[in-house]
């Protein structure tokens, strides 16, 4: 892709996404280009499948470690496709699907985009009988909605990342964000920010308050109390990473896995799962209705639900597994690099699907005033 | 004959590259909002109804202020710089131009990040300022309007120089020498001869710097305070995070109109001011 | 020379090319001096050094005994009229003329008065409000002169300002310029490659070639007593005849020995020299009328241009040009044998 996305989808972090507003405005052209690329590549084997994941390091890791294991087990060749981030992608995918030429057979979607796609009848329903391993997933991933058009692929956590040299004692609760720490935090800005979930859970007991505009107003009013403490309302992880590395902020909300990579590279930060829980977002496998590879897609998704696949994803892709830890052979260190045993706050997917524009507008109004 | 002219290559490219996207923008701005897609068929003025909000007017004002500041600084720096370059030896001129062209190849994202690092407390410019006695202690210089302006001037300056270069390098040296023999110091000769001779390209460079700044998205986002986020950032927010393409389109048209007005106003003001 | 411009050993080198070589000369106050020479002779560079637009590589320039070699252009108060005139296209005529006055912080009323005075001086009292592109070539010329004179310069420099004008207008402007200079008594230097122009205008002509001054003197002296072959050939028409010194009073021209004027002291018997004689000074004697000092030749070509007749005479393979009034030469024809007489005081002996 272009320079823009490659800078922003920091290789070490694995570009997860759509959750993160990765300077999306700049990436539109890049997105278009990337989406068209797959049409050129010919399929190689008799049984094959085109799978797309978010581009960059993320896609490379899937292609290098996860797909070969699947091909070995099933004989189905996987063609790996880079999937761009942002709002454009879903729009273009819907157009391509209408034209009967989806650029992939299986794609990896952010939860809110699964709902957006569903509203346009973009996804094929799977046959539960063909995905027997589905039941292996952790309990919270066993309710894929009425249509069974998505299956959890992997998760990631938004944690409380702090510089331990500048904040003692280390916080164990999100409430520390609201204590007196002027100009200390860097917090994700905009409607996709997990600060909505954190504030809802910590101050209003549950994310359900985000389901209606009045509740959103209340939550935003509470977020507004953070303004004096927030130095950086970041929109892409690179900005926050730079700020952490250069001591520009004491801490804030940040991705757990990226923070772990930063620690490995010598940056003095800690990634803390507060007692109220880190915010967990999940990416899901979906199949566009116009894809003809029904059997192959289900075989692939079934494979993804095995402990074997989830271990590979945890070790090599750097994402949290969607199977309970007890079923996995991850070491403590491997598990801690991507997840935690503490309960998590779920992402407010439904609320965001319903109210994104309102959340965005009110948030911007609050933050710019 | 007339048809041939109408279908000429410039007309076609204008149509394809400018008119059609603009018509699309207009069309989407009057479309109803669709939560799952981007917009849906139908006609409504809802998006325009959302424009009259104080934070949007504030952002527009921020856009204008930013554009004027960046354009003024770019011209103020770029003009003398270009003038000096054109007075250098040919070889050195080429080196300068290549250097400036090279900076154009850097992405604005990369540049914004570099400024973020440069202005940080830990390794930034503030250390140099402290060493020079300009500051008491190292401090973080972002987020701030100054950081945004500095970064944007860096981005826009090559355009300013490259716009002015052809004019300044063809500048009739006789006129400057004539002014000198008539008693003008180099600075006076510059102000009384070079400036009026190059007013037009200077206005063009100024307007271009303004337009480039109005469209800037990444630098204010990364380096600026949310209170001073310009329209471009808010449009990005509405389109990409808010999934409200009609509203983003209406905001774009609003910004486009404001930019056009600003450019015309600038040209008008420049025309009014003549004679050294 | 107490007042005026003095140039002492000035040279200008660009890279490995010496454009002006060790020039020394003085321009007395109130004089009109022409730098004359073919293009590339260094005359413009010398003028630009005087103006301060170029820095000499060696030597000094003094004005009224003050060294101004390092004085910046704008502090010299030397006005210059450029070849391309360099009028400011963005200013009206009066603003062009008032430019130097404005720089000197002269008030608007005085400025207006001085501009009016200058417009009267150049005989264009009504063009003040016009823009430059509304002017004819001659008008621009005058405006450029007026602009330069507005500051009452200590030295008035003109770099071939008339070369763009047509012949008639140029003649007219030459006279006008000379009158203007005499009226204002301003020390003036004019650079030109047109020897006629220099002869018309100048008190003193400085002839230059290859960066070196060839001769300095009043027009008549330059014309009548050229210092060397170059000057003789460049200024007007001249017969240049190869000869050999026989003794202090005679030279050999081909087969004949002829008497000449004073022999320069450094010449020895047997030295090769060049005899320079102007065509109008050559006398021709017809019909065997015997004369002392005669050379016998054949008429090769006759050109009757009305006010005079030009003859080309073949003398032992050399061509001699002579000019005379038509009345004297009526009926002369090609192939006629004639005796040519070179008056002693009209011959200049030039060392080779």
Give a short synopsis of this structure.
By secondary structure, chain B is mostly helical. Chain B has helices spanning 2-6, 9-29, 46-49, 54-86, 90-104, 108-118, 125-131, 145-169, 173-181, 186-197, 199-214, 218-223, 231-241, 245-272.
Overview of the molecule:
- The complex is a heterotrimer of chains A (369), B (276) and C (352).
- Chain A has two domains: 3-155 and 281-339, 3-Layer(aba) Sandwich (D-Maltodextrin-Binding Protein, domain 2), CATH 3.40.190; 157-279 and 347-368, D-Maltodextrin-Binding Protein, domain 2 (3-Layer(aba) Sandwich), CATH 3.40.190.
- Chain A has helices at 3-8, 28-36, 57-74, 87-98, 111-119, 195-204, 213-224, 237-245, 256-264, 294-304, 307-317, 332-338, 349-368, and strands at residues 48-54, 77-83, 106-110, 151-162, 185-188, 230-234, 251-255, 270-272, 279-286, 345-346.
- Chain A has 13 helices and ten strands.
- Chain B is an all-alpha fold and 276 residues long.
- The mean pLDDT of chain B is 88.
- Chain C is built from eight helices and 20 strands.
- Chain C has helices at residues 43-51, 93-103, 108-121, 137-149, 167-184, 195-201, 219-224, 229-234, and strands spanning 4-14, 17-28, 32-36, 58-63, 66-67, 78-81, 155-159, 188-192, 204-209, 212-217, 239-245, 250-253, 256-259, 272-277, 283-285, 294-304, 309-315, 318-324, 337-341, 348-351.
- In chain C, a hairpin with a 2-residue loop joins strand 12 and strand 13 (256-259).
- Chain C is elongated, with a radius of gyration of 25 Å.
- The two termini of chain C are 33 Å apart.
- The chains are: A alpha/beta (369), B mainly alpha (276), C alpha+beta (352).
- The B-C interface holds B 172, 174-175, 177-185, 188-189, 192-193, 196-197, 274-275 and C 51-53, 72-74, 76-80, 82, 84, 86-91, 95, 99-100, 103-104, 147-148, 151, 157.
Keywords:
heterotrimer, C: Rossmann fold, 5-stranded antiparallel beta sheet, 8 helices, elongated
Task: Chart the SSEs and their pairings.
The complex is a heterotrimer of chains A (369), B (276) and C (352).
Chain A: H1 3-8, H2 28-36, E1 48-54, H3 57-74, E2 77-83, H4 87-98, E3 106-110, H5 111-119, E4 151-162, E5 185-188, H6 195-204, H7 213-224, E6 230-234, H8 237-245, E7 251-255, H9 256-264, E8 270-272, E9 279-286, H10 294-304, H11 307-317, H12 332-338, E10 345-346, H13 349-368
Parallel strand pairs in A: 1-2, 1-3, 5-6, 5-7, 9-10
Antiparallel strand pairs in A: 3-9, 4-7, 4-8, 4-9
Chain B: H1 2-6, H2 9-29, H3 46-49, H4 54-86, H5 90-104, H6 108-118, H7 125-131, H8 145-169, H9 173-181, H10 186-197, H11 199-214, H12 218-223, H13 231-241, H14 245-272
Chain C: E1 4-14, E2 17-28, E3 32-36, H1 43-51, E4 58-63, E5 66-67, E6 78-81, H2 93-103, H3 108-121, H4 137-149, E7 155-159, H5 167-184, E8 188-192, H6 195-201, E9 204-209, E10 212-217, H7 219-224, H8 229-234, E11 239-245, E12 250-253, E13 256-259, E14 272-277, E15 283-285, E16 294-304, E17 309-315, E18 318-324, E19 337-341, E20 348-351
Parallel strand pairs in C: 3-8, 3-9, 6-7, 7-8
Antiparallel strand pairs in C: 1-2, 1-4, 4-5, 9-10, 11-12, 11-14, 12-13, 14-20, 15-19, 16-17, 16-19, 17-18
Helix pairs in contact in C: 2-3, 2-4, 3-4
């Amino acid at each position: 892709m272009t320079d823009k996305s490659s800078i922003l989808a920091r290789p070490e972090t694995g570009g997860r996404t759509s959750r993160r507003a990765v300077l999306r405005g700049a990436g539109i052209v890049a997105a278009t280009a990337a989406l068209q690329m797959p049409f050129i590549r010919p399929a190689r084997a008799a049984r094959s499948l085109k799978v797309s994941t978010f581009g960059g390091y993320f896609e490379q890791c899937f292609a290098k470690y996860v797909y070969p294991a699947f091909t070995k087990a099933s004989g189905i060749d996987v063609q790996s496709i880079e999937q761009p981030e942002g709002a454009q992608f879903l729009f273009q995918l819907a157009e391509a699907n209408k034209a009967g030429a989806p650029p992939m057979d299986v794609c990896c979607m952010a939860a809110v985009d699964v709902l957006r796609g569903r509203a346009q009848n973009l996804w094929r329903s799977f046959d539960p009988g063909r995905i027997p391993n589905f039941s292996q997933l952790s309990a919270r991933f066993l309710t894929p909605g009425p249509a069974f058009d998505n299956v959890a692929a992997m998760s990631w956590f938004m944690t409380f990342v702090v510089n331990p040299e500048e904040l003692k004692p280390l916080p164990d609760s999100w409430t520390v964000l609201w204590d007196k720490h002027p100009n200390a935090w860097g917090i994700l800005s905009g409607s996709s920010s997990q600060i909505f979930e954190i504030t809802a859970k910590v101050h209003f007991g549950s994310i359900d308050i985000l389901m209606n505009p009045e509740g959103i107003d209340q939550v935003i009013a509470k977020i507004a109390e953070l303004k004096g403490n927030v130095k950086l309302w970041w929109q892409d992880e690179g900005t926050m990473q730079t700020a952490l590395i250069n001591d520009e902020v004491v801490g804030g909300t940040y991705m757990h896995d990226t923070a772990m990579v930063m620690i490995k590279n010598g940056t003095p930060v800690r990634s803390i799962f507060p007692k109220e829980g880190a915010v967990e977002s999940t990416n899901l496998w979906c199949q566009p209705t116009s894809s003809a590879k029904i059997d192959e897609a289900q075989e692939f998704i079934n494979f993804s639900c095995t402990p074997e696949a989830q271990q590979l994803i945890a070790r090599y892709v750097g994402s949290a597994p969607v199977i309970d830890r007890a079923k996995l052979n991850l070491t403590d260190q491997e598990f801690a690099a991507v997840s935690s045993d503490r309960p998590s706050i779920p992402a407010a997917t439904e609320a965001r699907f319903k109210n994104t524009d309102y959340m965005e507008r009110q948030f911007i109004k609050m933050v710019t005033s | 004959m007339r048809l041939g002219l109408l279908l000429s290559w410039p007309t076609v490219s204008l149509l394809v590259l400018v008119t059609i996207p603009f018509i699309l923008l207009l069309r989407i701005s009057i479309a109803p909002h669709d939560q799952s897609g981007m917009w849906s068929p139908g006609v409504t003025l809802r998006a325009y109804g959302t424009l009259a909000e104080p934070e949007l007017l504030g952002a527009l004002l921020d856009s204008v202020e930013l554009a004027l500041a960046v354009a003024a600084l770019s011209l103020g720096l770029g003009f003398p710089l270009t003038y000096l370059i054109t007075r250098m030896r040919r070889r050195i001129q080429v080196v300068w131009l290549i250097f400036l062209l090279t900076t154009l190849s850097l992405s604005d994202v990369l540049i914004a990040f570099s400024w973020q690092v440069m202005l940080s407390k830990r390794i930034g410019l503030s250390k140099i300022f402290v060493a020079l006695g300009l500051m008491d202690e190292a401090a973080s210089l972002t987020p701030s309007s100054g950081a945004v302006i500095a970064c944007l001037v860096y981005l826009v300056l090559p355009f300013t120089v490259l716009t002015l270069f052809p004019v300044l390098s063809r500048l009739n040296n006789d006129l400057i020498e004539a002014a000198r023999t008539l008693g003008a110091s180099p600075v006076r000769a510059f102000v009384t001869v070079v400036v009026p001779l190059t007013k037009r390209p200077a206005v063009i460079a100024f307007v271009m710097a303004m337009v480039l700044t109005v469209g800037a998205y990444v630098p204010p986002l990364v380096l600026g305070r949310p209170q001073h986020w310009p329209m471009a950032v808010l449009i990005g927010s509405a389109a990409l995070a808010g999934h409200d393409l009609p509203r983003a389109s209406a905001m774009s048209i609003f910004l486009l109109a404001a930019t056009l007005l600003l450019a015309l106003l600038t040209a008008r003001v420049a025309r009014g001011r003549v004679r050294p | 020379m107490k007042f005026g411009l003095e140039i002492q050993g000035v040279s200008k080198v660009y890279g490995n090319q010496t454009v002006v070589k060790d020039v020394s000369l003085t321009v007395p106050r109130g004089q009109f001096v022409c730098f004359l020479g073919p293009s590339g002779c260094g005359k413009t560079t010398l003028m630009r050094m005087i103006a301060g637009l170029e820095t000499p590589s060696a030597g000094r320039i003094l004005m009224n005994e003050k060294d101004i070699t390092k004085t910046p252009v704008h502090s010299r108060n030397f006005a210059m009229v450029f070849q391309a005139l360099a009028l400011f296209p963005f200013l009206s005529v009066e603003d062009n003329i008032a430019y130097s006055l404005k720089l000197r912080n002269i008030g608007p009323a005085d400025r207006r008065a001085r501009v009016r005075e200058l417009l009267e001086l150049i005989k264009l009292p009504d063009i003040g409000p016009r823009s430059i592109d509304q002017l004819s070539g001659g008008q621009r010329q005058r405006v450029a002169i007026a602009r330069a004179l507005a500051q009452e310069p200590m030295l008035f420099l003109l770099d071939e300002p008339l070369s763009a004008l047509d012949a008639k207008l140029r003649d007219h402007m030459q006279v006008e310029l000379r009158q203007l200079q005499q009226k204002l008594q301003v020390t003036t230097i004019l650079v030109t490659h047109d020897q006629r122009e220099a002869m018309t205008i100048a008190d003193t002509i400085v002839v230059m070639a290859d960066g070196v001054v060839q001769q300095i003197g009043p027009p008549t002296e330059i014309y009548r007593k050229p210092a060397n072959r170059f000057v003789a050939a460049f200024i007007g028409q001249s017969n240049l005849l190869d000869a050999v010194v026989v003794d202090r009073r005679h030279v050999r021209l081909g087969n004949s020995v002829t008497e000449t004027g004073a022999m320069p002291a450094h010449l020895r018997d047997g030295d090769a020299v060049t005899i320079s004689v102007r065509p109008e000074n050559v006398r021709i004697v017809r019909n065997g009328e015997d004369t002392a000092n005669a050379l016998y030749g054949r008429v090769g070509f006759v050109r009757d241009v009305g006010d005079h007749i030009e003859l080309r005479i073949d003398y032992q393979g050399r061509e001699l040009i002579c000019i005379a009034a038509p009345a004297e030469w009526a009926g002369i024809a090609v192939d006629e044998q004639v005796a040519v007489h070179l008056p002693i005081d009209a011959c200049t002996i030039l060392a080779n």
